[in-house]
Design brief:
The chain contains no helices and eleven strands. Strands 2, 4, 5, 6, 9, 10 and 11 form a seven-stranded mixed beta sheet that branches.
Length: 119
């Protein structure tokens, strides 16, 4: 298992920006697929974005063009740049690490960081 610690969540006004960070404690960070997921009150956890070891990215339709995921393998960090935030982006955001071709649900999860977007 990989230890993951998220940071950067905050209260922000609609239209604003935030950058979430996730620090991983593993010596083989570069092999993991890293992802950001979120869970809003009363809703199931959903995919936000993922990035493979090679840098290929995937985004939920709801965040395409507004959010950007990136990783720094040397620092064992993954980031989520969130721009043009909307109220519906309010959720707890979780960092995930899993091996390629495996179910993310059985990977490692951080404790979550709260993002609240006000109008």
């Amino acid at each position: 298992q990989v230890q993951l610690v998220e940071s950067g969540g905050a209260l922000v006004q609609a239209g604003g920006s935030l950058r979430l960070s996730c620090a991983a404690s593993t010596n083989i960070f570069s092999i993991y697929v890293m992802g950001w997921y979120r869970q809003a009150p009363g809703k199931q956890r959903e995919l936000v974005a993922t990035i493979t070891s090679g840098g290929s990215t995937n985004y939920a339709d709801s965040v395409k063009g507004r959010f950007s995921i990136s990783r720094d393998n040397a620092k064992k960090m993954v980031y989520l740049q969130m721009n043009s935030l909307k109220r519906e982006d309010t959720a707890v955001y979780y960092c995930n690490a899993h091996r390629a071709f495996t179910d993310p649900n059985f990977g490692s999860w951080g404790q979550g960081t709260q993002v609240t977007v006000s109008s």
